[in-house]
Structure formats: structure tokens, C-alpha cells
Design brief:
By secondary structure, the protein is an alpha/beta fold. The protein contains 32 helices and 30 strands. Strands 6-19-12-5-11-10 form a 6-stranded mixed β-sheet, sandwiched between helices. Strands 22, 25, 26, 27, 29 and 30 form a 6-stranded mixed β-sheet that branches. The chain has a 4-stranded parallel β-sheet with strand order 2-3-1-4, with helices on one face.
């Protein structure tokens, strides 16, 4: 403090505060030379080492009772029983100008007892930057421990002066350049330089129970993560890790609370991943984990290696059937999918999606496939083709859907360089290709031939035919509503199960609702015939001597040709990409003159029908769902569309494993009258018959005005493999001829409220709201099942003191579609941060949306750990 500052401070004391006498003790004589330079108006400055204190006392109390005096003592303040001026001092002011006093004032600390501690830390205060950042943390009643904690927070540049915040920042500095756990970071040198290291190790002891003779950051990190591992592991910790356990098991709970907060922190989870991976490698964790069952590891989130072991374990259980029920394994997947490693953004993988979540999605699809397989273990048996048609549209399509979802996820996992699902793929192919397709073809094939067979009567009661699509779906709307406009999206090879998922996806949108129906597709089930069947026509069929399909005598193969046919019915045709490329105004102007807008989309067929790309068929299906959802939004939001229909020309069959020679229907005698040869059909005239084929006429199976004949290979067989062998259509299997029709309408008025999209409700079970243990399990119930307009809800569950997190935070997804309440239960295991809690205070069990941080519910709870902490 310079002379000017001294003058200003003393002037303020005398004139603003109104003190008459001020005592100033300067035991170090830091300011003895500055005394003569002080310029204090109306104040007598007295150096008391040169004065008689008795005479000074007489002057102050008798001779001059109005004058202002600064009494400077270049020595320490005397003890009260030796202080001649004690009675005067009691009604006067004592001024401190030593560094500790200045710091007390600058920091706003109220306790004079802190002066000696500040002197010990004086090196820290030499930096104005450190001082400025420390002042943001300081509270007036802070004592030594609080001050040291906040000084360390300043050094590591933590956002908050909490133990957990400091540790996250400190450990992040280990990974600033390369993740080297053996070399302390540079900031540690400052912690030691300013004498804060002993306090730091004492802090770790009181917080976690970390007490060793030679503490180090690397040693603490190993013990921290081993303790988190042990806290969440079911079963015994490996013997080789026992010596890392903290002796105080109550405090050791904080290891899990901190680790959970660290790895979920948006600013620090990447460093956690790096450090935990290094420690896992040093511990040889991969080998140690092989001794544990999946159920032992379900709650362990400490190491990424655990996630990999869980996936390996689930894979092993799946390919060794009859040991675990699919539904039991699914509960394990539900738990892990909500865990850290399956939800965090991971570095080092070639895919944007979380690789673990994708692997679990693949395993989930396998388990769904197996559960369905168990239901139909005896095969498929139906009294009529209509019954089997309805069985397919109500449930059997799920075989194809689960198979697609598995391969979609498995392909992504494989692209990331993992082989973990290879053996599962073999298992899935055995179930799908070798059993399901075989059983389905046998059962459906039994209805194909014979006098009353489908090939002679391509019709099912109450099932609409594809060739009547315009008459059944479009014409009634155009006739009854003079200004109505219908949008028809035709997606090439959009099979029924893909349409079912598309319907569910569209139904997550709040302004419109989709309803899935079906129709019996034309046979052979290929593009030229299917596309023609969907157009308005009086009659249609093949040009004589050719495979060209004509609508009322006009060609219909190209977009322009279809547009010309639609123009006769106030319609038009356009490609989906061309429409989506338009602005809102351009789109409205383009469709304004028309009432039937046919929009053509082709991704599944364009991908699957070529040998070089057929392996991407299922990804094309995913892209199709996304593209058509966007197209529906554009039509409703930008083009004011109110009625949309989505359908297809045909479906498809896809097998990931290449077909064998057994699936090739060799024809010793090639029909002489053939006009068109395809993998799944031959078209022509006077083809005759063959024992190896199904034969028929398009007049019966497609409603053409001529009688073009066809041969089909039975089941899923192919005539030849050119142009790709795994993606097929053209035949009579349900996947090829059961065509989806999705009707989408915009919700209006009260319907928007009544039929609004909502998320399922969640309630806490039980009436007990008292926490008596630092580890507690909470049970929640999903109050509604997931359905078309009822969406899953994901919640982050934690215990909080106001907003301060005092436990770990765990994520739960409530996505059950079960009617049974027991199936809709979910649990959260929370570990309370070790510390002192007021049993009369109200804390909260908080449920939040993890993305928006909006609170779903805040449930008051009491914490009473008195009994537990007595021992």
C-alpha cells in the first residue's frame, strides 16, 4: 500500500466513519518511513515510540477531547494487561496496514484469525490475475480450508470452487497434450509452489478415503476408478485389484458419485474416456472381465472395456440358445442402452452414430427375431390364404423387419471395424433364410396352385387389388370434394414392413396422422406392371408381342408418359427430389392446376437391383423412411396438402447371405414363347407348364386385358443370378405382393388436441421418501404403453440440493409397448455423495429431460443418515 492509498484509507476512517482516535500498530515497521509524508487534514499524527504514553493519555482524555489523532506504534500490539491506552482503544478504531490486513480487506474476509494463514499463502497473492479470479469465489465467512480450496480452483481454472470441479479440471490438464498419467501436469507445480499440496491430499482423504504414504495423481486415479468399478460390480472384485480399495467404504461411495459426474460432464467426458482407457490397459482389465457374467456388469460404467465385454457376453448367450430367454437378455440391453458408453459421443470410430448403441440395436433385433421364432416354432399353418395374408400384415412382417434392422445395425458395426457380430450374423441367417423364408414359402405356396389356388383366383375377400388403386383411393376423393387435392407418393420397392416403420415414424409428428393399410399387388411383382397398375385406366395390358405395358393404349414407362396419362384426370407426375428442390412458392405454383399429384421416389429398388450396390439395400430402406418423412412434412407444411397416400409398385426379398445353387430353379427346357426373362419370372405367350415353376396369366393376377403368361420359381428361388443375387422381387412371396398403402391426413381443430402426440407418463412407485442409506434403488412405472401417438420418454434421475447435484445421475428410457404394468417398471440406483445432511431439510429426487434439461418432476425427499454414520 503506497502513501496515497494510506492517506485515502485513513481520511475515510477519520472523516467518513467519524472516528476521533485511530491506533496503528506496525510490528514490522513497514510504513515507518511513510509516516512523515502523510497529509491528513485536521489530524495529529503521533509516533508513540517517542512519546510518554501517560502524558499522551492525559492529552487525549483531559486536555484535548475534540482533536483527531493518529497514534502510530512501530511495534506489536501489547497484551491487554500491559496496555496503558486500552480504555481509549476500546472506543477508538484500530487500523491495519500490513499485507495480511490488506488482503483481508481486498478479499472481503471477515475473520481476523485468517491473517496468519494469509501470510503463509502470500506468494499466491502476488498476481493481480489470481487475486481477481479468487475474489469471485470468496465468501466473507470463509476460513482456511475454504480459502485453500478456492485457491486451487483458481490455479486449475475451475468454473466452480468445488472438489469435483477442481478434480475434473486437474485431470483434464493431464490430457492437454498427450494423456500421460505418470507426469504431473504443469499446474501441479503451482499447487506445490504455493504450499497447497498437503491440503489437496487431505481433501482427497476426507472426500474419498484416499490415504497412502506416497500419494500421487496417477495412483489416486487408479484407485478412484477401481473403487467405482467395485461399487457397481455384482460379485467379488478380482483379487489383483483388492489393494486399490479405499478402507473407508462410506467415503468410497464418493468415487462412484464423482466418476459418474465426470464421465457425463459435457466438457470433460472425453478426458475421462482417455484416462479410463489407459488405466484399464494398465490393469489388464480385458482379461479380468472374462470371468464375469453379463449380469455382474450391468451397472458398471467405469470402463469402456466393460461395454465391450457386455456385448461379447450377450452375443455368446444369443448363439447358445435355451440358456437364457430372449426377454431376459432384452432387459440387460435396455439397461446398457441408457448407460454412459452407449449414449456419449465417442471419438475414434468411422460412424456418426454411437457404436455401442448400434451394436445393442443389432442384438435387440436378434432377440426380437428369436422371440418371434419361438412363437412360431411349429411353423406356419393357416386355413386360408386370406388368414395368412392378415397374419402377415398383423405380425409375420416383423420377421422381415427385425432381420432388416439387425443387418442395418450390424453393417454399421462392421464398417467401424468390429467383428463382434460376425457369429451372430450366421445365427440370424440360419433363423431367417434357412427357417423363416423356408417355412413361409411352404405355407404360402400351399395356396398357390390347384383349381382353387391363388394363381387361378388372384383375389382375397375384403383385400383391395393394386390395379384398382386409383378407383379405390383417389377417385372417391376427387368426386366428392370438388376442390380436393390428393398427393400420391409411389416409392419403388417399398415393402410392407418398411411401410409399417414409416407409418410409425410419421405418427411421431404432431400435426398429422398416418394409417397403414395393404393391397394385393399384381403378379409378377415388378416395376413396369406395378407402376402401370397404380395409374388411372379403363384398361391396361401388354403391347402385342412385347413386354411394354400400355395404359388405354398409351405407353407409361417414363415420368413424362405417366404425366400425360394423369393429365386426363386432372393429374401430374413429378420426381420426389425435383419437388423437394423447389421453394414453397415454386412448389405451390407447380401443383396449383392439378388435383392428383403423383410423386415418384426410387431408392430401394435403384440400390438393390444392381450387383454392385445390392448390399446397401437396408441402408436404402432407412434413407427412404427419412426421405419420405421429409417429403410428407414438405407437402403438408409448404404445399398445404391435407391428404397424402404412400404406396409402392412391389415389395422385395433380401437375404444377406448369397443364395446357393439350391435356390436356383434350373430349367432344362427354356420356354420358346418367352418375351422377358427375369430373376423371378419369365413372361411370354404359350409358355406351357413346368413342374419346377408356378404358372399363370396376368389377366388373372394383374387384371390386364390380355393374357400374358408367366412362369415363377417357387418359394424364394431364382431363375438366374444376373444383376445381383441377394435382392429379388417379381415373385409371389408375401414380401413381394403385399403392398402397403399409407394414408396421411393433417389433423385439424379438436383432433389436434384429442389425437396429439404425447410422451408416456412416469410415476415413482412406493410412498417412502426418506433416504437412510447412501445407496438407494428407486422404482418407476411407465403409466402408458408406447404406441402410434404415445412416444417413449427418457429421463435423467438424480438427487439434488436445490440445483446442486449430490448423487450420481442415471438415465432411464421408458419405451415399453407392453400391456403388462410389470413389464413397464424401470429402476434407478443412486449413490448419495458422502457428507453431512440436515434431516429436517427438504432435498429432491429430480427427473429431467437429458436433452432439454426441463424438469419432468421434482419429488421432495428427506435424508437421514444418522444411524448409518454412527458406525
Amino acid at each position: 500500500m503506497n502513501t496515497t492509498q494510506l492517506t485515502e484509507s485513513l481520511t475515510d476512517i477519520f472523516h467518513s466513519e467519524g472516528h476521533r482516535i485511530v491506533f496503528w500498530y506496525d510490528p514490522e515497521q513497514e510504513f515507518i518511513d511513510a509516516i512523515p509524508s502523510l497529509s491528513l487534514d485536521g489530524v495529529h499524527t503521533v509516533r508513540c515510540d517517542a512519546e510518554s504514553l501517560l502524558e499522551l493519555k492525559i492529552t487525549l482524555e483531559l486536555e484535548d477531547q475534540e482533536g483527531k489523532y493518529l497514534l502510530y506504534f512501530p511495534y506489536p500490539e501489547p497484551e491487554p494487561d500491559k496496555d496503558w491506552l486500552l480504555d481509549i482503544k476500546l472506543y477508538s478504531r484500530v487500523f491495519h496496514a500490513d499485507q495480511a490486513s490488506i488482503l483481508l480487506s481486498d478479499l472481503g474476509l471477515a475473520n481476523q484469525s485468517m491473517r496468519s494463514h494469509l501470510a503463509l499463502r502470500k506468494k499466491f497473492f502476488n498476481s493481480q490475475d489470481r487475486m481477481a479470479r479468487l475474489q469471485k469465489f470468496i465468501m466473507p465467512d470463509d476460513l482456511e480450508k475454504e480459502l485453500d480450496l478456492k485457491m486451487i480452483a483458481v490455479l486449475v481454472r475451475a468454473e466452480q470452487a468445488g472438489t469435483f470441479d477442481i478434480l475434473m479440471k486437474l485431470f483434464a490438464s493431464l490430457c492437454a497434450e498427450k494423456c500421460d498419467l505418470t507426469t504431473p501436469p504443469k499446474v501441479w507445480d503451482d499447487i506445490e509452489k504455493f504450499g497447497l499440496a498437503p491440503f489437496f491430499w487431505d481433501l482427497l482423504s476426507t472426500t474419498f478415503g484416499y490415504k497412502v504414504s506416497h500419494p500421487s495423481l496417477s495412483d489416486f486415479l487408479v484407485r478412484l476408478l477401481v473403487n467405482d468399478f467395485a461399487n457397481t460390480l455384482k460379485g467379488d472384485l478380482p483379487a489383483s485389484l483388492h489393494h486399490f480399495l479405499f478402507e473407508n467404504r462410506t467415503r468410497a461411495t464418493n468415487a462412484s458419485v464423482f466418476a459418474a459426474q465426470w464421465r457425463s460432464h459435457l466438457g470433460h467426458y472425453r478426458q475421462y474416456a482417455q484416462i479410463s482407457a489407459k488405466i484399464a490397459s494398465e490393469l489388464g482389465l480385458d482379461q479380468l472381465l472374462t470371468t464375469f457374467d453379463v449380469t455382474d456388469l450391468l451397472d458398471v460404467m467405469t470402463f469402456e472395456a466393460v461395454e465391450q465385454q457386455v456385448i461379447r457376453g450377450l452375443r455368446s448367450k444369443i448363439i447358445q440358445p435355451h440358456q437364457d430367454r430372449p426377454e431376459d437378455l432384452k432387459s440387460a440391453i435396455v439397461r446398457r442402452k441408457d448407460g454412459h458408453w452407449a449414449t456419449v459421443q465417442l471419438a475414434g470410430y468411422t460412424t456418426d452414430s454411437n457404436i455401442y448403441a448400434t451394436a445393442y440395436a443389432a442384438l435387440d433385433a436378434v432377440l426380437d427375431l428369436l422371440a418371434l421364432r419361438n412363437v412360431y416354432d411349429a411353423g406356419f399353418s393357416y386355413p386360408s390364404p386370406l388368414a395368412m395374408f392378415h397374419a402377415y400384415t398383423s405380425e409375420l412382417y416383423r420377421f422381415d423387419q427385425h432381420y432388416r434392422l439387425f443387418h442395418e445395425a450390424a453393417d454399421t458395426v462392421e464398417m467401424a471395424g468390429w467383428d463382434v457380430l460376425k457369429t451372430v450374423q450366421t445365427f440370424v441367417e440360419s433363423c431367417y433364410s434357412d427357417w423363416y423364408l423356408d417355412q413361409l414359402s411352404i405355407s404360402w405356396g400351399s395356396f398357390m396352385q390347384g383349381e382353387d389356388g391363388l394363381l387361378n383366383h388372384w383375389s382375397l375377400d375384403d383385400v383391395r387389388k393394386q390395379q384398382n388403386f386409383f378407383a379405390n383411393h383417389i377417385q372417391p376423393i376427387l368426386r366428392t370434394k370438388s376442390k380436393a387435392r390428393v398427393f400420391v407418393i409411389i416409392s419403388d420397392a417399398l415393402r410392407y414392413e418398411v411401410g409399417e416403420e414409416l407409418t410409425r415414424t410419421i405418427n411421431t409428428q404432431s400435426r398429422f396422422k398416418a394409417r397403414l393399410q395393404s393391397q394385393l399387388g399384381v403378379l409378377p411383382s415388378y416395376t413396369a406392371l406395378g407402376m402401370a397398375a397404380l395409374l388411372p385406366h379403363e384398361s391396361y395390358g401388354y403391347k402385342e408381342g412385347s413386354d411394354q405395358v400400355l395404359i388405354d393404349g398409351q405407353p407409361c414407362a417414363t415420368l413424362e408418359q405417366r404425366g400425360a396419362i394423369l393429365a386426363k384426370h386432372e393429374g401430374m407426375s413429378i420426381k420426389a427430389d425435383a419437388l423437394l428442390a423447389m421453394s414453397k412458392d415454386e412448389g405451390r405454383d407447380h401443383i396449383k392446376p392439378f388435383r392428383a399429384v403423383y410423386i415418384y421416389h426410387d431408392q430401394i429398388d435403384a440400390t438393390g437391383d444392381h450387383a454392385s450396390t445390392e448390399g446397401e439395400t437396408f441402408q436404402a430402406a432407412r434413407n427412404t423412411i427419412e426421405k419420405l418423412t421429409s417429403l410428407v412434412k414438405f407437402i403438408i407444411n409448404a404445399l398445404n396438402g391435407t391428404t397424402i397416400l404412400i404406396t409402392a409398385d412391389h415389395g422385395f426379398i433380401y437375404q444377406d447371405q448369397p443364395p446357393t445353387s439350391l435356390e436356383k430353379s434350373g430349367l432344362e427346357i427354356q420356354p420358346q414363347g418367352s418375351i422377358k426373362k427375369h430373376k423371378r419370372f419369365i413372361l411370354g405367350n404359350n409358355l406351357g407348364t413346368s413342374d419346377k415353376t408356378w404358372t399363370g396369366s396376368t389377366h388373372i393376377t394383374a387384371g390386364t386385358n390380355d393374357s400374358m403368361e408367366f412362369w415363377l420359381p417357387k418359394g424364394v428361388n431364382r431363375f438366374h443370378f444376373s444383376g445381383g443375387a441377394r435382392f429379388i422381387h417379381g415373385g409371389a412371396m408375401p414380401q413381394e405382393v403385399i403392398v402397403p398403402v399409407i394414408q396421411i391426413k393433417e389433423l385439424e381443430g379438436n383432433a389436434r388436441v384429442v389425437d396429439a402426440v404425447k410422451k408416456v407418463g412416469v410415476s415413482l412407485l412406493g410412498s417412502n421418501r426418506k433416504i437412510v442409506n447412501n445407496r438407494q434403488k428407486w422404482i418407476f412405472i411407465q403409466t402408458e404403453k408406447v404406441g402410434d401417438r404415445m412416444l417413449p420418454r427418457t429421463l435423467a434421475v438424480s438427487i439434488r440440493d436445490n440445483d446442486a447435484l449430490i448423487s450420481n445421475e442415471t438415465t432411464i428410457t421408458f419405451d415399453s409397448d407392453s400391456d403388462t404394468m410389470e413389464d413397464r417398471k424401470r429402476s434407478a440406483k443412486l449413490m448419495l455423495k458422502q457428507g453431512s445432511y440436515d434431516n429436517t431439510k427438504e432435498y429432491a429426487l429430480v427427473l429431467r429431460d437429458p436433452e432439454t434439461q426441463i424438469e419432468y418432476e421434482r419429488i421432495p425427499v428427506n435424508i437421514d443418515l444418522a444411524f448409518m454414520n454412527d458406525f
